[in-house]
Design a protein that fits this description.
Bound molecules: nicotinamide-adenine-dinucleotide
Structural class: alpha/beta
CATH architecture of the largest domain: 2-Layer Sandwich
Radius of gyration: 23 Å
CATH superfamily of the largest domain: Dihydrodipicolinate Reductase, domain 2
Number of strands: 15
Distance between the termini: 29 Å
Strand content: 15-25%
Number of helices: 9
Largest sheet: 8 strands, mixed
CATH class of the largest domain: Alpha Beta
Strand order of the largest sheet: 7-8-9-6-10-11-12-15
CATH topology of the largest domain: Dihydrodipicolinate Reductase, domain 2
Helix content: 25-40%
Shape: elongated
Number of domains: 2
Amino acid sequence: MTSQNYHLVIVGYGGMGSYHAKHLLKGNQNIEVSGTYDISEDRRTASMADGYKTYESLAAVLSDDAVDFVLIATPNDVHKDIAIAALNAGKHVICEKPVTIYSADLVEIMETAKINDRAFIVHQNRRWDEDFLTMKKIYDEQIIGDVFHIESRVQGANGIPGDWRHLKEYGGGMLLDWGVHLLDQLLFMIDSKITSVYANFSYILGDDVDDGFQVFITFENGITSLVEVGTTNFIQLPRWYTKGTKGTAVIHDWDINGKIVTQNSGEVEAPKPIKAGQGLTKTMAPPSEKAVSTSDLPKVVKTMESFYENVVSVVEGSAEPIVKNEEVLRVLRLMETIFKSAETNQVIQDFDLVPAKN
Ligand code: NAD
């Protein structure tokens, strides 16, 4: 069956809205960007300069029968109202992350999508990131044995970017901005209930919102994880550091530099004690040459449809969404738990949700 041609209007033609138009949807065989709507005069001018029709109001977008999809790429606080209005107008909706600030708002959107029998799909695009897929392959295929600890970090030195990201009322802050990606990846990878959450936030830059955080998550299957975002890190730690029963994997960056070191089987020479600082240690001495092997990171081969291929398959009824709303809801609830943990300085153990995946 050949897919039909769909018309999509971008609401919020800022950084990410225009990135969808110029990169993610450029040359798409099935979805055509047929216009944009932005409250800013400057962005309407930019849209016209880029060759896209501009609508004068959201109502004008929603009353246009030629529009099949609305893509929401506004600041986070208005995602909900735009999504509900678009779904009630009979449009399919794609929404940028974080889908909403509060989980109750996503529940309302999901109910509205169901009533109107329209697709509502969140752009959790970092499920397709190669660094993540490489670590997921190491995890799934037990390349370093059974994984028991995962550290996932992004660290910058440029502070919080832009304007609205500094403000609470717009849904600013780094947990909602970057945290949502890292947590989404972690929960997509680990199919186990969360048994405890402990978090702390940093406010180094003096904003109302967090400019970084650390969260420690323990899963029922015994895996521990540390997820960290920073915006004042002038030296960066690796993007991923993962320990398994047979080895350790590190991915330094988005260019997938890194390595795997695994333990060799059989009898190996014991490590020789080394002088370390003012002392002597065997425990912290490097393993003997024959005790370990170093290998390259595995290559990831495409196993799932791209985000927009999947969007088309979902509306045509030939596939399930790769980003399921129930999974997105679980991540939102986890972020609410992280805020609670940081505010109360408590380990939270009643994060009792249904498993993310069947
Ligand atoms: P931005 O400030 O560059 O753009 C937002 C645009 O929305 C602005 O042009 C603004 O005028 C417009 N706008 C504000 N309120 C509006 C309304 N009610 N109706 C119509 N237009 C409105 O911000 P951005 O960086 O593009 O972020 C937009 C969204 O995209 C956010 O939700 C953000 O989290 C998300 N985002 C996602 C990724 C990703 O990788 N998935 C990356 C960056 C941003």
